[in-house]
Write a structure and sequence with these properties.
2 copies of one chain form a homodimer. Chain A has 316 residues and is of the alpha/beta class. Chain A contains 11 helices and 14 strands. Chain A folds into 2 domains: 2-173 and 210-235, Rossmann fold (3-Layer(aba) Sandwich), CATH 3.40.50.720; 175-207 and 239-314, UDP-galactose 4-epimerase, domain 1 (Alpha-Beta Complex), CATH 3.90.25.10. Helix content of chain A is 40%, strand content 18%. A 7-stranded parallel β-sheet of chain A has the order 3-2-1-4-5-6-11, sandwiched between helices. In chain A, helix 4 (87-107) packs parallel to helix 5 (142-161) and helix 6 (182-192) crosses helix 8 (243-254). The A-B interface holds A 83-84, 87-88, 91, 95-96, 99, 103, 106, 123, 132-142, 144-146, 148-149, 152-153, 155-157, 159-161, 230, 232, 270-271 and B 83-84, 87-88, 91, 95-96, 99, 103, 106, 123, 132-142, 144-146, 148-149, 152-153, 155-157, 159-161, 230, 270-271.
Chain lengths: 316, 316
């Protein structure tokens, strides 16, 4: 199994799960946001190999893909918010990189490619909870646009070349090795000033979150039982929470009661979705159920980050 | 006004129309499939300029976009059928090229970008006639996938940077300066062998077609009256015809009665859509109505090509 982005948050957790399930695992990661520390557990394993490589390097990618049974393509630019400052980044690191992964998989005769997309592809949908076959969405972020492009390539490759291609549309994921997102941002702000915290938007944005192990339960289940040449699965919790609620859990976990300064508006930034709530019926029909509530996951993520101060100091 | 792909079939007709409407027009075209002959009428015009340039050349594109009021982005790889033989072509000439156009327009502060997408983005839809907001489609061709990627970039750019971005989803277009598609292919085959003709698929594929002048009526109307920051319009005829019917009109027009050899199957090739029929209500609400039937357009296209034998000899 090849895992691109395997040194990242979700990728490294997937690597540990795949190794525990007796698979041979190769990680392909350029360490732009991935961290070797996340692979410490995997590193000593006889069935583990690490390749430091970039997805824009066709030759390196083709070599890594050789003789792999499946590719889990998790590498991506995941900085949704700053897309407008770097308009080429999502194109290169998401769209072109995913084309390169598919092309390497085709040339290397890899049978299966699993891709981590995002609920952001729905933009601001008209239907909640949003099912996979909701009306043709309009993109509100360069990040979402690039992920839609990747998904389209996945389906076209599956159709053209007979590879199995599976797309997962994630909500925001929480848990061990979490390195960016609202919990991270709030903790950094509260370290700098424990008495007052800036909240992007009006605090009423409502989003669903999912624990990384629940997420990987679903990914691994799909990889074992789904045979369709092309398939799409929403992955999220049935519930959701507001930014304000999540901030309260975070503050409670660290024992602070800061004032809240709202930047205002329904959206935290241009392209932010005021409401993300996915219909995960399709995934649940396979027998999957999340084991963690959103509150449990937020609190566990806070505790994890408080125990890994180096992450808070290093990143962002 | 800048017209990318302005030396092509639809582009050169658009150029003539824009000049007739008193606009100043610059064509940006690499002449990979465009033809200088199509710009003979425009060439002598004092308000016309031609730039031979490639959309992957960022500097040239930025220079061309300077001080333009609007960009009509028509340049594309339009070879739907052979996408699987050249998997990088659609990525480069459609997705990356469109990103470059949008980026140049943003940097050059161009207020409006019009983009020619395709009904192929619907893949094999579940709803006929297919409206713009049909269920989230699954791509069946690399061509469709690349156009979806372009559309997603259009909406994200409009949202992020406040440019007006309008997407047209065309059916196949017919008329003067037509250079590729089923009428072209059949005429070439019949020139080689007037007694027998190969038909890709079972001949029952049903598709809608639209006359190039009807198409441009719609594009120009939208450019004059639509103010939405982002909009999508299907463009086609309300009717459709089968490949067999169209072949009969072609044969009738040239006075031949060849035998027909069907390659078989519902699809002419991998990624071919067995049925293309777009719901154009949204466009019709603006007061637009096609002036030509599909049969009239097919027959007029045959007569045009018979008068321009150089095209049949040179292309394909």
């Amino acid at each position: 199994m090849l895992v691109t982005g395997g040194a990242g948050f979700i990728g490294s957790n997937l690597v540990d799960r795949l190794l525990a399930n007796d698979h041979t695992v190769t990680v392909f990661d350029n360490l732009s946001t991935g961290r070797v520390q996340f692979l410490e557990q995997a590193a000593g394993h006889p069935r583990f190999m690490f390749i430091r490589g970039d997805l824009l390097d066709h030759a390196a990618l083709c070599a890594a893909v050789q003789a792999q049974d499946a590719v889990f393509h998790l590498a991506a630019n995941a900085d949704v918010r700053r897309g407008t400052e770097h308009p080429r980044r999502d194109l290169e690191q998401n769209t072109i990189a995913t084309h390169n992964v598919l092309e390497a998989a085709r040339l290397g005769r890899v049978g299966r490619v699993y891709f981590t997309s995002t609920g952001s592809v729905y933009g601001e949908p008209a239907v909640f909870p949003t099912p996979e076959d909701c009306p043709f969405p309009i993109q509100t972020s360069l990040y979402g646009a690039s992920k839609v492009a990747c998904e389209a390539l996945m389906s076209a490759y599956s159709q053209a070349y007979g590879m199995q291609c599976v797309v997962f549309r994630f909500v925001s994921i929480l848990g061990q090795r979490y390195t960016h997102g609202h919990v991270f941002d709030f903790l950094k702000k509260l370290r700098a000033n424990p008495r007052s915290v800036e909240v992007l938007g009006n605090g009423k944005q409502s989003k669903s979150y999912l624990d990384v192990q629940d997420c990987l339960d679903a990914v691994l289940l799909v990889s074992q039982v789904v045979q369709d040449p092309f398939a799409v699965f929403n992955l999220g919790n049935d519930g959701y929470c507001t930014v304000d609620e999540s901030l309260s859990w975070i503050c409670d976990e660290i024992g602070l009661s800061p004032g809240r300064q709202y930047t205002g508006g329904e959206r935290g930034w241009v392209g932010d979705s005021p409401l993300i709530h996915l219909d995960c019926t399709r995934m649940r029909r396979l027998g999957w159920t999340p084991q963690h509530t959103i509150e449990q996951s937020v609190r566990a993520t806070v505790r994890y980050l408080l125990g890994e101060q180096w992450l808070l100091e290093e990143a962002g």
